[in-house]
Amino acid sequence: MRVDIVSLVEQVVSGLGFELVDFELSPKGRLLRVFIDIERGITVDDCATVSNQLTRVFEVENVDYDRLEVSSPGLDRPLKKLADFERFAGQEIQLRASLPINNQRNFAGVLNGLRDGAVVLTTDKGEVLIPFDEIEKARLVPKF
After folding, report:
1. Rounded Cα gap, residues 63 and 66, in angstroms
2. What is the dihedral angle through the alpha carbons of 47, 52, 55, 56, rounded to the nearest 10 degrees?
3. How far apart are alpha carbons 92 and 109 in whole angstroms?
4. pLDDT tens digits, residue range 49-101?
5. CA distances from 130 to 5, 112, 141 (A)
6. What is the 8-class DSSP label of residue 29?
7. 75 Cα distance to chain centroid
8. Burial of 77 (0-12, 13-18, 19+ CB in 10 A)
């Protein structure tokens, strides 16, 4: 039986007090990328702690891989969960819908949280509601 790697990673990361933002597995499963976050921001030591713990757990669970990368999600952090869209309300985001909404798939604007299971976005054309289930990808737009 193959171990559910995502559940395993989620368990280890949250057990250490971090949030699992994203997890990527290369097509052949040889490279594992883990993106973690915490309210105060991620340090190199945080990445090392999570990496060391995951390495030990993968050894015990016989997870076969070549390389493990643990890092912060960066300033252009992806928004994946419903909670992300509430937490980052007031910030500027870019969003891509899986299906066109008013003949448009790509949106940019200020995130205004959630309403009835849809993400509320204020764009230069006004307010747009994008059903959460129809979001292909979304990320924060960094401010410098």
Report:
1. 10
2. -150
3. 5
4. 999 999 999 999 999 899 999 999 999 999 999 999 999 999 999 999 999 98
5. 30, 11, 18
6. S
7. 12
8. buried
Q: Name the nearest CA neighbour of 61 among 21, 87, 24, 32.
A: 32
Per-residue buried b or exposed e for 122-135, using 16+ beta carbons within 10 Å of the residue's own CB? eeeeeebebeeeeb
Ordered DSSP codes for 52-118: HHHHHHHHHTT---SEEEEE---TT-B--SHHHHHHTTTSEEEEEEEEEETTEEEEEEEEEEEETTE
Q: Which domains does the chain have, with CATH numbers?
A: 5-71 (3.30.300.70), 82-140 (2.30.30.100)
What is the C-alpha separation between 99 and 20, in angstroms, rounded? 27
CA 2/CA 20 separation, integer angstroms: 21
How confident is the model at residue 109, as a pLDDT?
96
pTM: 0.82
Q: Which residue has the tokens 């090392």?
A: 48
Query: Distance between CA 134 and CA 144 in Å, rounded?
Result: 30
